[in-house]
Structure formats: structure tokens, C-alpha cells
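Q: How would the C-alpha cells look for this protein?
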Amino acid sequence: MASSSHPASITPSRAHPCWPRRGRLLPRVLEAGEKGQMTKRSMGELERAVMDVLWDQGGWLTPGEVHQRLGDPSLAYTTVMTILVRLWRKGRTERHRDGRAYAYHPVQAREQYVAALMEQVLAEARDRSAVFSHFVDAMDPDDRAQLRRLLNRYRSS
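A: Here is the predicted structure in C-alpha cell form.
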């Protein structure tokens, strides 16, 4: 049988932890605390971290600049690139060519994004009034005062 350097052509050893049942070689991701390996993180966490960098910076950033600002040496540059492309495909960032790379920028401000999430959650409610009531009850008094000021401003306009 001819051997190829492509991982899918290698016959998997069932005893090895890197081999899934479909025969593709995937790296074993260890839980936090196991020595010498990277920590398992959800993609949502990485996307949030990348978006935080983009929001905090405020301008256009290349994958290399995002990677540098994340400050995690265990995170590969290509992973940051993949996350940025996924965010672009989801419509959360826009991009333009910057030399050989793309530069990325958030489509919405952080506050607009969070407000949209709140709207999505509220749309799931059967009793919106009860949701508002529970939300306001759980608020910090300073936040409740800010909400009252905003509502008064909308009432007067």
C-alpha cells in the first residue's frame, strides 16, 4: 500500500488518543492543568476575545495585530486568522485588504451588539412584562437610576 503524507491516508491506531473514528488526525486537546499542552477553549470564548480586541482598539487590525494584542503565546496566528474569517462570514466584522493580509473592523459597537443580544433574548419571552420586571428587580440601583433617566428622556421626546 502506497503511503502518502496526507493525514487522512494514514491508517489509524485505535489505541492512540489523537485518532477519531473517521480516520482523520486531530490534535488531542487536553483539559486545563495537564502539563505541556494547550488548554481547551470554546470557540465562543475565542470569538469574544478577538471581538474585545477589535472593540477596544477601535480601528482596523490585521490578524497579526490581533494576535499580538491577545498576548497568548499558546494561541496560533492561524487560529486568530480563522476566527477573524468566521466573524467576517457571520457579518460581525468587515474587512479590506491591507498589503498581503486583510484588516478587520467590527460592524457594530460593543454596546450595539449587546443590545441586539438583549433584543433576541426578549423576543423569546412569552410575558415580556414579567421579563422586564425580573430584569429591573435584579439591577444594581445605579443601573436602575440610569434606566429611569433614559426612559424619562424618551418620554419627553
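Strands lie at 93-98, 101-106.

The chain has two domains: 43-106, 110-156.

Upvote if useful.
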